[in-house]
Each structure stands twice: as C-alpha cells, then as structure tokens.
Amino acid sequence: EKVPLKMEVNGKQQNLSVEPRATLLDILREQLDLTGTKKGCDYGQCGACTVHVNGQRINSCLTFGIMMNGKKITTIEGLAQGDQLHPMQEAFIKHDGFQCGYCTPGQIMSAVSCIREGHAGSEAEIREYMSGNICRCGAYPNIVNAIQEVKD
Ligand code: FES
C-alpha cells in the first residue's frame, strides 16, 4: 500500500504517493524522472547517488523516501541557475573531472558539500572528504583540481 510523501525537489513542491520501502533514489529516478542521480551499487558504497537534503549530502540509495517528508532535496538537475552552470560544474568541465561521466553527478554534489562544509583546506582533506565517491575511470586528480579552483 502506498503512502503520501511531500517534499521539495529542486525548488518545486512534490506531493507523491510512494511505496513505503522505496528509496529516495528510486523515487527521484522513477517517479520524478530525475535521472541525473545515478544508481551505481545501490548499497552505499559508490556515491553515484549523492544528493543534498536540507543542504547536507546523503546517499539517496540508503535513504527511504518516506523519511524525506517536509525536506528540501537538491539533485544535480537543481544546481544550475537557468543557463548558468554552477561554478563546480564549470570547474569539472575545465579540469576534465570525468571520463565516462557516470559518477559525475554524485562527485559534483559531494564536491559542493566539501567546500560548503569547510573540508577543502588541503588536497589530503579533499581526498578524505571525497573518498566515498568512487570513479572507476580514475579522474581523481582532476576532480581535486576542480574543487581547489572553486575553493580559491
Ligand atoms: Fe548509492 Fe552507490 S548507488 S552509494
């Protein structure tokens, strides 16, 4: 039996009816068509599903949708302002912070949090904060460069 869920996603109020066991990730992708958020592992190991809830990053695959009642969600689709990319998106492009791109939405959401939460002081600190976001192409040095550029 489905249950009601009210949450704000990328500035838009959503009144949904969801399966009680549906993850935030599946609701975003399947009910709201926000497929920028990726499913890599579906058990908290890769970071591809990273989104912001009330400004804090979380793995949406580990989060039940019904826990999101009244919360504000931001996904990769919500970062740009109209045609204006977020500075972190610009920096990833400039520094080639990706190859295949599958992990990129999660990397960018974590990278924004890294600076916002004050964990971009040194390269080691950035690498530690970003360690939950796996990139199988190995774009890590370029990702660090992108974060360092936005921080400065
Ligand atoms: Fe959520 Fe991998 S899909 S951490």
Structure description:
The chain has 152 residues and is of the alpha+beta class. It has two domains: 3-78, Beta-grasp domain (Ubiquitin-like (UB roll), Roll), CATH 3.10.20.30; 87-151, [2Fe-2S]-binding domain (DNA polymerase, domain 1, Orthogonal Bundle), CATH 1.10.150. Helices cover 32% and strands 16% of the residues. The protein has helices at residues 24-31, 87-94, 104-116, 123-129, 140-151, and strands at residues 3-9, 12-18, 50-53, 56-59, 72-74. The model has no long low-confidence stretch (mean pLDDT 97). Residues 39-42, 44-49, 59, 61 line the site of FE2/S2 (inorganic) cluster.
Features:
152 residues, alpha+beta, Ubiquitin-like (UB roll), DNA polymerase, domain 1, 2 domains, 16% strand, globular, binds FE2/S2 (inorganic) cluster, oxidoreductase, metal-binding, iron, (2Fe-2S)-binding protein
Q: What are the segments in which pLDDT stays under 50 over at least 5 consecutive residues?
A: none
How many helix segments?
5
Give the bound compounds: FE2/S2 (inorganic) cluster
Portion of residues in beta strands equals: 15-25%
The CATH class of the largest domain turns out to be: Alpha Beta
- Briefly note the structural class of the backbone: alpha+beta
- What is the radius of gyration? 15 Å
Largest sheet: 5 strands, mixed
Could you report the average pLDDT, rounded to the nearest whole number?
97
- Write the element-wise H/E pattern from the N-terminal end onward: EEHEEEHHHH
Number of domains: 2
* Lateral arrangement of strands in the main beta sheet: 2-1-5-3-4
Helix content: 25-40%
CATH superfamily of the largest domain: Beta-grasp domain
Beta-strand segment tally: 5
Give me the CATH fold name of the largest domain: Ubiquitin-like (UB roll)
Organism: Mucilaginibacter sabulilitoris
Domain 2Fe-2S ferredoxin-type: 3-79
Keywords: Iron, Metal-binding, Oxidoreductase
Protein name: (2Fe-2S)-binding protein
